[in-house]
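sanity check this:
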Amino acid sequence: MIVSLSTRWNAGRHERGETMLEEIRTLGFSHVELGYDLTPNLVPGVQAEVKAGTIAVTSLHAYCPVPAGLPFTSPEPFTLASNDTTIRASAAHYLQNTIRFAAELGAGAVVLHAGNVECRVMTPKLIELCAQGRQYDDEYEKLRMKMIIAREKAAPTQLAHLYAGLEKILPLLEETRRILALELLPSWEAIPTEIELEKLLQHFNSPWLRAWHDLGHGQVRENLGLTPSKGSMSEGTWFQPATGLSPYPTLPVDGQPQSVPTPSVETLFQMPGEYRELHSAPSTYLFSPEYAVGQGNFAWAYDPAENGAAKTPLGHDYQEPAKQGQIGKNAWTSWYHLVPTRLMSGWVRLHGTPASLGDVRLGKYQVHLSTKEDVPIAAETGWEFLRVPMVPRLYVDGALAPTGSQSAATGAFPRGTVAVFETPGGTAVLCGDGTGLTYRVDKGAFILAYRPGNNVFAKGKASEIAVPFLGISNRLHLNDVLDTLAAFGILRPGKVGYPHQIQRGTTLSSYAFWRVQAKDGAFECQIPKVALTAMIPVQVEGLNDRWSAFVVDRKRPAPNYRPIPVRDQCGYALLDPTDADADFFVGHPLTCDNPNVRLLVSWKEPGRWYVEAHNDGDAAIKTSIASDRAWPVFAFKQDVDLAPGSSRIWEVEETR
């Protein structure tokens, strides 16, 4: 997986393109998107770095570079959907410049804001009401419907302008073989909406015209009730651990790579007495270049009163009436009314790491579920929550166990029990973890179930369910798969294939993920060079969400550090001892005697760093801040008084 950082993050504080890109590289990024605020003085440095091969550009955000003479930077100084002829002409001119610049740099895509419907702007008021928790009251709904109706009246003329403008741009896209991606924006006034974009793409039917989905924008639109979300997680929701690891050529289409098929793991969320279709209510728990966690929340369900409805809530005919028995599957054609779940609360998380060494991705499927009432579960099956439509090889403590073929087989699924699903496109592995899990092989499918105590989900009592998984490339054969499972402590729990010596902290678990407990804000260990198929995913507990955290390999030359995310007192990183012996520090560069202070550590330029302390509370704070004794980059010690809402910033020289 390639993750690019937009130069929107730092272009404004640099005069030279070289230093701008160097700052990004020190964070561990090898790819960038050039933002719409890339000023002309930064261009020569960018061109030189791309030519030297020190950085790769994946995309440009129009208009890039900033048009000469423009007194401000904006993604929308000119738009193709404007009613003004002069503005449309300028948009076409500068968009062509951006496309040619993308071709020069080898960037595959140009991102474009198409424009806004010229009507009264009402989205900010909706956001204000939503922030007050009023998105389900009458005032909110009246304003939302008023805004939708006003937009529907004004949009057709401007959509026609957009179509005409794209018609003229397409020949250049075909000539340069660049993709123009229209970005979905967070406001309802923006052009196009999801449905408008789908129709536009169908009209042009060009490989050089695509959609650009901004996760944050999409979440805002969904929160405001503006987007038709494909959000059902009760039927047909699945993930593919091995997707994207095939050595065969892939082409992303609608988010799904075209390659040799890999095993699919279907999620099941049917519960007796609950609505048939739950809304995913998605949120991002954690995201970084090396570890990501997405979250769905058990909070809302699709109103069953809309099943079989003849008209959408806006009074239109359904485009796909045959799908109206499945509310969440017809979501591109309407907006649906959501109701609170009857029974289920909690969340489901999907953890994932990139296939950092090319062939293996580690992840975890995690459920935190409680119920609003006592819910009895069938004793013979338990609560079934995962299904794979094939029969695996089953291993128990390293030994192959029988699973039957098409006939029924059952058993416990604790740690040390793994199900290996092999296909031509790659291998997926589900790993047992914890008590209460059972498996069943029936009619050619493998089904995982959870059995709560006394086969009853007790009201208000949370059940914790976890299933680690691996996605493995078809470059690795079965013996390689088993070696990988052994190396990460899965095949024989308690034994791992990476010898290590801990100088600070303790191991909590080494089953798939290396869970450790920090001591005084950090974890330290040495790992000799070892052959592994993936980097070691480490989770460091006992950290502070308010303080910056880094991983440093003290055996490597600088820059040998990168920031890592911390959420709920746990830091997430990947450790790589496959090239040479490694000496890792994972934790906080700075600590202080008041855990409520926010401490930010960030790289400024070669040899110099920023340190910031912030008090976001209502009371004054007096504290002592010091660098960790094992942090090798710089030394820092400062006593500071922080008034409520105030910050102190220092520039610090590296000491090595």
The chain is about 20% helix and 35% strand.
